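User: I'm writing a tutorial on reading structure tokens. Could you give me a worked example: one chain, its sequence, then its tokens, then a sentence or two explaining what the tokens reveal?
Assistant: Sure. Here is the example chain.
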Amino acid sequence: MGKKGGGRVRVKQVGPKMPATINPLADLAIPPEEMIHLPVQPDSNSGFLFWPMSETFIMTYDKFSAIYPNYLDSNKTTKLGRRIAVKDAVPEPTIQDIHEALVSLNIRHVIQPHKGYSRDATARWFNNGRVLVDLKGAAEKGVLGMGADGAFDLDDAIPELNDEDEQRKNGSGVSKKHLLRQLAHIISGLPGRQRRLEENARKALAEEAEKPQVAASNVAPAAGNRKKKGKRSKK
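And here are its predicted structure tokens:
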């Protein structure tokens, strides 16, 4: 095993050499081709779209008011952001729907496609985005009015959703909630939205039709007829 020389012992390794590094979990590692790669979440402060586009480099929107799709969504609760009554809201509105409705009213706005409503955890992944609206410009066009105190309805509190909400506390002008109701009314009749809802309905029907076929294929075949063992008769 070793040689003596000069009072020292030199040990010589016998047998196969061990690898430099050993990973005991190597066999459990997922192959690269089978790994799931999630998309990179975009920067929430990028991708802004301005309307009208001619004001892209000159528009100042730091005092604009935010409108999230949750504000108009009849499927959301007030805790998740709905600001108007269910009868006035629309199911699953998108920022594209809000944009088209604001364009029809000729109201300046900024689309922020990567923002999400803070009270709704799914808003960053499903139906995300928000629209910043020029309330002052809307008031000048007569769509949104000022109250007696000269201010807009900008509170973020949960709205009153009963019949008294339809009656304004002051008789001068309308509020931001009136604008939300008007946007929801316009969105309900948008042609692009109707086509999208019809396409989603067709996909849902197709998925429902595929479920029975998948369930039938997973059913185990029935066992064959087997003769029951009985007691032998004594002779």
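What the tokens reveal: Confidence is low (pLDDT under 50) at residues 153-173. Strands lie at 2-5, 8-11, 49-51, 65-67, 109-112, 130-133.
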